[in-house]
Amino acid sequence: MYDTKRLVGERVQRLRKRKGLSQEELAAKIGIDTKSLSRLERGAHYPSMETLERIRVELNVELKDFFDFDPQPSAEEMRDFIIRAASGASYEALTKMAESVKKLLE
């Protein structure tokens, strides 16, 4: 059985990070305090439908996206992860990443 609160919270967090927003930024944009958003993302409580709708609008996603509990990340999520990882990587790490990608694409 799903732990719906936790799974919805994880989805909110993942979608927030995909947009490159901190908890503080998203909380301010949707009109709640950071602690409330943190509790929501940890699955400590359910968001109200009003809060979920404000998050949906701010993140430019569909309501169903909060309930997509597929454990496999989407292609877009994997691309976002790779871009975030590369943007913070050292030159040495980027070189290794590039070599790995070239090998995979051969």
Can you tell me about this structure?
This protein has 106 residues and is mostly helical. The protein has two domains: 1-69, 434 Repressor (Amino-terminal Domain); 72-106, no CATH class. 67% of the residues lie in helices and 0% in strands. It has six helices and no strands. The chain has helices at 4-18, 23-30, 34-42, 49-59, 75-87, 91-105. The protein is elongated, with a radius of gyration of 16 Å. The termini are far apart. 13% of the residues are buried. The model has no long low-confidence stretch (mean pLDDT 90).
Question: Top keywords for this entry?
Answer:
106 residues, mainly alpha, 2 domains, 6 helices
Bin the helical content: 55-70%
Instruction: Report Rg.
Output: 16 Å
Spatial gap, N to C terminus: 42 Å
Order of helices and strands: HHHHHH
- Protein structure class: mainly alpha
Q: How much β-strand is present in the residues?
A: under 5%
As for the number of domains, it is 2
Assigned CATH class of the largest domain: Mainly Alpha
Write the layout of secondary structure elements.
Layout: H1 4-18, H2 23-30, H3 34-42, H4 49-59, H5 75-87, H6 91-105
Provide a compact summary of the structure.
The protein has 106 residues and is an all-alpha fold. Helix content is 67%, strand content 0%.
